[in-house]
Hints:
The structure holds 2 protein chains of 2 kinds. Chain A is an all-alpha fold. Chain A is 70% helix and 2% strand. Chain A has helices at 2-18, 22-47, 56-73, 77-96, 104-124, 126-129, 158-180, 182-192, 194-199, 204-230, 240-254, 258-274, 282-296, 301-307; strands spanning 142-145, 149-152. In chain A, strands 1-2 form a two-stranded antiparallel ribbon. In chain A, strand 1 and strand 2 (149-152) form a beta hairpin. Chain A is globular and about 60 Å long. Chain A starts with a helix and ends in a 17-residue tail after the last helix. The relative contact order of chain A is 0.19. By secondary structure, chain B is mainly alpha-helical. Chain B has a single domain (3-292), classed as ABC transporter involved in vitamin B12 uptake, BtuC. Chain B is built from 11 helices and 4 strands; from the N terminus they run ααααβββααααβααα. Chain B has a two-stranded antiparallel ribbon with strand order 1-4. In chain B, strands 2-3 form a two-stranded antiparallel sheet. In chain B, strand 2 (143-146) and strand 3 (149-152) form a beta hairpin. At the A-B interface, helix 5, helix 11 and helix 13 of A face helix 4, helix 9 and helix 11 of B.
Amino acid sequence: MRRWGAALLIVACGLPLITRNAYHIDVLTGAGLYALLALGLNVVVGFTGLLHLGYAAFFAIGAYTYALLNLHAGVPFWLGLLPSAATAGLCGVLLGIPVMRVRGDYLAIVTLGFGEIVRILFTNLESWTGGPNGLLGIAHPTIWIPGQGVWGFGVRSVPYYYLVVALTALTAAVCVRMNRSRVGRAWAAIREDEVAAACAGIDTVQLKLLAQGCGAAIGGVAGAVFAAKQGTITPDSFDFILSVMVLAMVVLGGLGRVSGAIIGALVLGVLPEVLRGVEQFRMLLFGVVMISMMRLCPQGIMGALRARGLFRSPSSTVDAVPAA
Amino acid sequence: MTPLQVFFQQLLNGLTIGSIYALIALGYTMVYGVIQLINFAHGEVFMVGAYAALTILLVLGIAQPLVGWLLVGVVLLCGIASMAGCGLLGLGIERFAYRPLRTAPRLSALITAIGVSFVLQNVVMLLYGATDRRFPPVIAPLRWEVAGATVTILQVIIWVSSAVLMLGVQALVMRTRLGRAMRAASHDLTACRLLGIPVDRVIAVTFCIGSALAAFGGMLFGVYYNTINFHDGYLTGLKAFTAAVLGGIGNIPGAMVGGLVLGVLEALGAGYLSAQWKNAFAFVVLVALLLWKPTGLLGERVAERA
C-alpha cells in the first residue's frame, strides 16, 4: 500500500510537467481539496463510525477564520493555517460535547442542523462576514525564495496544486499512522461496538471528541487553503450539498480507508469536469454514475479492489468493514 | 390586529405549512421504520409530485379559479394522478436503487439515495426548465374572518385533505394485515422472513405509500405557494426530515406531530423574530430538542449504533 501511495504522489508531482493546461491543474487542485476534506471526514465517519452530515461547517469555519485574520490583522497565509485548524478543531470538540448524548442517525441530524446553522450565521452576521456577498480581497500565500525575494502565489494554478498535494500527502500519512496506533484501534473498537469498547476500558468520550476535533481541524486547514486560493469566500460555498458530496467520496472510495477517501475524492472531484462535454446532462449522469458505482461495489472502490486481492497491505490491522 | 390576533394568524399559517411537512415526514419515517434508511431522495419525490400536479393542470387547461364540484373533481384528479405517478416512482427507486443494496453497509444506500436525488432533480430540470414554474390559480380566493384572523379556502382544503390522509395512514398501519406486516418488519426483518412475511413486497409498498403522500404534499405546496422549482425538494425535504426526527423517527404519529410543531414554530419564528433567521430557527429548535430528548418528542430508543 505504501508503495502505491508513493507512486501516486510521484505521479501527482509530475503531472504539471506533462500538462501545461491551467484548467486541468485547477480541476486537480479542487479534487485535492476534496481529498483533504474526505480524509478529515473519514476520521470521524470511517475510523470512529460517527455519521456527520455538517462537515462543510468546519471547512467554512477554517476559511472564515483565515479570511478574517488576514483582512483585519494582516495575518499571512502560513501563520493563518494554524488558527484556522485550531478554531475548526475547537468547534468540532465543542459540538462533540453536547452531542455525546445523541447516537446513530440522530447524531447525523444534529450535525446536519449544526452545518445549516453555521452557514446561516455566516450569511446573516453581515457586519462580520459580509453576509451573502462574502469577504473579498483575501491575501494569496507568498513564499520567500533565497535570492529571489518574496514570491506570491497570485492567481497561478501550479503553486496551489503543489500546496494541496503536499497537504494531502501529509494528512494521509498522519491518518494512516493514527489508524494503526493505539488511538486508531480504540476508534475502530468504538465504531464496531461502543458499549464493548467502553467495557474494555476505552475512554469513549475522550476518543470520540479527539476524532471529531482531528476531523474538524483537517477541514479547517482545507478551508484556509480554499480562502487563500479563491481570494473571496461566500457562504454559498459551504452548503449541505458539500457535506453530502464529501461523505459520498468517503463512502464511495471505501469507508474507513485512507486510500479510499483519496480515490473517492479524485473520482467524484474530477468526474463533473469530465462530463462538461455533455453540459446539460452533466449532473444527471453524475447521479447515474453514483448509483451504478454503489451497486457495483457496495463496499466502496477500495473495498471491492481488496475483496479481489488487490492492494492488500500485510500490516493492516483494521480490515473489517464498518457496519455503519 | 391585536397581538392575540397576530398570534392566531401565525398559528394558522404555521398549521398549513406544517400539514405539508407532516405529509412528507410520514414518508421519511415509514421508510426509516422498516429499513433504517434516511431516504434523501424523498424530498425530490415531493418535488416531482408538485410538477406532476402542475402538468395535469396544464393539460386540463385550467386558467381560472374553479368552484363547487368541478373544484373537488379537479383536486381529486390531480391528487390521485400525482400520487399514483409518484407511488410508481417510489416503487421504481426502491427496486433499482435500494433493493440491490439491502445487505450492503447502511451508508452505501444513503449515497445511492443522494445519487437518486441528483437524477430526479436533473430530469425535472431538463423537462421543465430551471426557472420557477407558476401554478395556475385553481382555487378561488375565498376567505373568511375567524376571530380576527384570515382563513382562506385553500388552507381549509390543505387541513382537511392532509388530516384525511394522515388518519388513513394511521388506520392502514394499525388496522390492516399490511400494516401489521409493516410494523413487524420495523422490529425485525429476519424474523419476518422466517415467519413467511413477504418482506420485499412490504418494503416496496412502504416506499409506494410514502412517495404517494409526498406527491400529495407536493401538489398542496405548489398550489399554496403558486410556484414550483426543481430546487424546492431539497430544503422542504430537509425540513420534513427534521420534522420526522423532531417527532421521533420511525414513529408515525410522531411525524405528524413533528410536522405541525415545526410548521408552527417556523411561522412564529418568522413572525416574531425575523424572516431572515427563519431557516436557522427550525434547526436550532431541532438541535435543542434532540439535546434535551435525544430520541425526539415521541420516539423510543431506536438506533443504538450508527
